[in-house]
């Protein structure tokens, strides 16, 4: 299963952290630091897998991708396919890009609850539920449509409008 | 091989990171967007944190934010929009590592909100904040229940997402019915999530959903492929826990995989033109489980695997996509896991080669992994790819390097061990983190122990490991190395051994030139120099002693190393004296010794005193005390102390009270008010450490005014503290706790004893704190050849031995027969040989005892000073080493000693019932005649000659220490003729007292008497390989 999904920037600041097994806040920070120190020490052309048994226990791996200022990291155990997860990250980022139109770090910082929603559609309880970017988009779109109905704040309507425009 | 999307994304990211201007623009855009959850405050917070110059500044900002939120959030009537924003900010704050627990309750409250937006935020926050055992969960279960029944499918799926994180074992039943209902929900989106939730329940508590296992099978047939694929996740877990139960699903899985591979699913499931790759991967994983070791099941998969492989092959001229490679790799895993056809194996090998040849590091990594799988079926396959493997090994990528070393580790044979270990060592040089270093060090040690081509190489390799990994290496490895040196390669080739030793000495002397060495290596160095430093004759004693002093000086804080050093010096001095040369201590050594004489560590002090004593002794005595090169010798111990029979008999004849076993003593005296000490006996049986203050000795009220032989008993009792410990056995001290405890025992004992002997009828009680150690120490220190005095010292000797031994024993199941054979051929000592001798011959160091030898005695480990962590003392008390009867027999020799001592002292009142004695004696005797070998052998004999000789030293009337002397010469009055036997006998009398009782089982009496006679001659039972061992002692 997937033990955690993390997004952090190249300075080591967490941008999104989701642990599928509960860790205390202190432990989370420890883990983030350890992951960052591993990732930051790796050059770009190296392989995308890092064995992380010293961080997450035996038979765990970090599968990561480096985009501009961000690392997307999935922590997996033996039951997941490394290359598959690599593509899952791709799906995740593609979806983000579709949602935010030319996604950048700041989009993720400011909308991290949205990003959580997207991630929840892809990974649930540590298992991959959806791997199609289009399907995820559809689900997220539904949620946001409803949210718009439930929330009459004009700014929000505008936000969704912006997103809708970007889709069309 | 990046997809178009990646390029777009990357471009976008680059744009975003071009500079602050861009960032500000983006923020402007954000503001214009007014995206949900963010207000100006939040944006300001993020911006402020982003611009923080230092960690401290960031901290300050976040703390201020927390204060602000605390205040705001508690205000009455916060509009829910605002509240939602606060919650989002809390999540953010906690993500940065700050405690936001004050707001958890508000997040929980928010899940009750009717507004979906708020509800979702509430669920998001609670799933991030709380774990499933949090107290607040109970408040949320009701909401979840309600939401699961909602008409709005978005509410339902939000609740299902929360269920995955928040529901624990106890609350599963509360939501389970609703979740099961949702399996029939019209929306596939919801069904999918319900399946996931059920899977999560299964992970949390398999029993809670055990009645639903058939449900998962049904879901597999769901008309929507995404729901089916969700079920695969659950089924994968189910299959891995019980393969047999799901064998009948093989056909279903195969047909699903076939349909998927043949593009029968809607186009929407394609990913980069590969049909539903994640479904394929999951099914392949499941098939690997189902087909493992099952030819019939495997055969059903052949065609579909071929199909999948064929479909994944890239077309001409186009590169394989990442995801199709993922499937190919998964195919290899499946093919190597099941009973595969040669054709499939051939294809797997071919794909593996392609991966290995790839330029992409990810594929290389997968290739190395696949190679590791393929060679388990076809070991020859590795050869074709040697070069590729070497390339990966020399790659700069750490992950790849580690993976390759993993592979090599699996491939190691005795022919290539040197090369592979070389690579591992050079890799270890580059490591800095303890975890990986420990791991690789343990692998090197394992390989070296398994495949070492020569002892020389082994020693050098170990030295490197110690040097690089230092104290990360388990102490056991060092002890094995020392034992190897002590034992030599074989029993016959003395020359090769001494060559080995002198080469070790040379390499260590060289090593000492290095600036920084880990403590454990220094211990080995000290030991080796002390033991063999002067043996070759190439180095003078002064040289070595000087080096040893340097070592000790360079590590003023390391008492263990100091202890090793001073003991090594003692040994060298003793060797010199024994050789008849005058020893003139170097001034630096003298001052070192003086330092230690005043050391705070009683252990070091003791060692220093011993050195001092040795310096004052004549050559003939020292020679007897310390044998040159005596480290490899072994001593058999007879725990029954039969040679004391005579003494016991005569005591009994003189009206001494017969020995009564502790338990019986308690039983029979529970009614006797006069037997005051029973109350204490009662407290003792657990032998746990007690932490209350020592009781006043007045507890030992005499029950009957008795006339103990005053000259006899006090004398030998007091010998205990005053006698010096043997030299070598002191090496064992590693754990400072033990270091402290050892001498402590001695001292405390002294006090208690003196008081006790004033009132002789009470069984002597060791002071409570030391009881457990002392008992156990006696329990396993062989009693045979040594005087009472060795007890205190032998505990450090024996315990390590036992400790090492247990480890070995535990390790046994892991050692394949092949490994043992190899190790045996490598290091000369074969278990068979030992068996044949009926003695434990020298045990070759790195290889472990054969399973059949588990009852064999441990070789004397005086030369292998394993450290004795205090805990191990206790472990041994647990007695997983001792067979039951032995454990019983040796249960508490100390108490038995008490009993014996009681006897004479209460000579006037010898009306002790006979029955208890008898039963106790039966314990011993049955042990003795039914399992003599066991009783001899299971008790680790750790007494070396040193013990014996020390006994001699003391009994010869030489004042061994400047401690209270209490009539050493009185020993001559001892009933046994030989002073040695007298001395040694004291110890033995403790446990053999039972054997000396008049009521005795017939045949065993003869046996024991015979043994007794032999023992008396030599002080120990010479069942060892060389009965002439003690000749030099007795002329």
TrEMBL record, chain A:
Gene3D superfamilies: 3.30.450.60
InterPro entries noted in UniProt: AP_complex_ssu, AP_mu_sigma_su, APS3, Clathrin_sm-chain_CS, Longin-like_dom_sf
Keywords for this protein: Cytoplasmic vesicle, Golgi apparatus, Membrane, Protein transport, Transport
Domain AP complex mu/sigma subunit: 1-142
UniProt key word Disulfide bond: no
PANTHER family, sorted: ADAPTOR COMPLEXES SMALL SUBUNIT FAMILY
Family named by the database record: Belongs to the adaptor complexes small subunit family.
Name this polypeptide is given: AP complex subunit sigma
Biological process (GO), any one: Golgi to vacuole transport
Pfam families found in the cross-reference section: Clat_adaptor_s (PF01217)
CDD domains reported for this sequence: AP3_sigma
Phylogenetic classification of the source organism: Eukaryota, Viridiplantae, Streptophyta, Embryophyta, Bryophyta
Topological type in the membrane: Peripheral membrane protein
Gene Ontology cellular component terms for the protein in this record: AP-3 adaptor complex; cytoplasmic vesicle membrane; Golgi apparatus
Keyword Protein transport: yes
Subcellular location(s) per record: Cytoplasmic vesicle membrane; Golgi apparatus
TrEMBL record, chain B:
Composition bias type Low complexity, residue spans: 702-714
Subcellular location: Endomembrane system
One Pfam family this sequence matches: Adaptin_N
One of the GO biological process terms: vesicle-mediated transport
Major place of residence: membrane
Segments of this protein annotated with the region Disordered: 697-735, 756-864, 980-1035
Composition bias type Polar residues, residue spans: 726-735, 1015-1024
One Gene Ontology term, aspect cellular component: AP-4 adaptor complex
PANTHER family per record: ADAPTIN, ALPHA/GAMMA/EPSILON
Name this polypeptide is given: Clathrin/coatomer adaptor adaptin-like N-terminal domain-containing protein
Species this chain originates from: Ceratodon purpureus (Fire moss)
